[in-house]
Amino acid sequence: MADRPLWERQPWDTTASFDRFHRFYLPQERPRSLNEAYRRYRSEKGQKEARPDATLEAPGSWRRWFRAQDGAGQPIDGAKTWEQRAQAYDDHLAQLDRERWEARRRAVRERDWTAGEELRDLAAKVLAQAPQFVKTTRRLLRGHDGAPDREVITLGLDADALLKTLKLASELQRQAAEVPPPKQQHDVHLTNPIPIAFVRAKGGSKPDAGNDDAPAS
User: Fold this and answer.
1) Spatial separation of the C-alpha atoms in residues 109 and 210, rounded to whole Å
2) Is the pTM of this model over 0.70?
3) If pLDDT is split at 50, 70 and 90, which confidence band does 210 have?
4) In angstroms, what CA-CA distances link 120 with 5, 99, 158, 172?
5) d(Cα 7, Cα 99) in Å, to the nearest integer?
6) pLDDT tens per residue across span 11-22
7) Which are the contacts of 68, defined by CB distance < 8 A and separation ≥ 6?
8) I need a surface site. Which of 39, 94, 163, 176 has the fewest CB within 10 A?
9) What is the three-class DSSP state of 200?
10) 3-class DSSP state for residue 201?
C-alpha cells in the first residue's frame, strides 16, 4: 500500500481519518480548509450548532489527522499531511490535463498537416488541368493604309483561387510543423483573369506575344 498514490488510503490511515480526508477535505476547491471539512462533516450528520457555523473549528482528533500525527500528537514516521496529499492529488490532475491537451494539440497538428497536403494536391491537379480553364477570346483589327489585318488572341486564367489555396496549404503546414511564417508575406488577390495576348497577322500560323500596338508579323 506504501506505493499507492498519496490521495488514496495509506498504512497510517484509520478508517475514520481516511473517510474524513477523502470525502470532506480533498473535494474542496483550493485553498482547502480543515475547519470547512469538519463543518461539512457535521452538516452531513445533521448536527445543529449552538454558535455560528463559520466559527466552528475542527477538534483535536481531526487536527492530528490533518498533521499526520498519532494519538499522542507525535509525527507518524513516513506519513504525509493532508495538505501534502491534496497537493499530490492536484499535481496528478494537472498532469492528466497537460497530457490531454498535448494529445489534442498533436491531433490538431496532424489534421492541419493532412489538410495542407490535400490542398497542395488539389492545387497540383488544377495546374495539370489548367488548359481546360483557359478562356480564349479573339478580336480582329482591320489594317489601314495597306497594313494587314491583325487578329488579337487573349488567353485568360483565373489564378486567384489557386493562389489562395496554396497560401492556405502553406499556412496550415507551417503551423502544424511549428515553422515560423516567412519574414515577408505578400497577399495576392486577383479580381480578374490574368490576360496573355498574342497578335498575329490574319491568316498567319504562329502568334507573337504582345499587345494591340505590336507590329503585325
Assistant:
1) 47
2) no
3) very low
4) 50, 32, 17, 11
5) 20
6) 999 999 999 999
7) 12, 75, 76, 79, 80, 81, 82, 84
8) 94
9) strand
10) strand
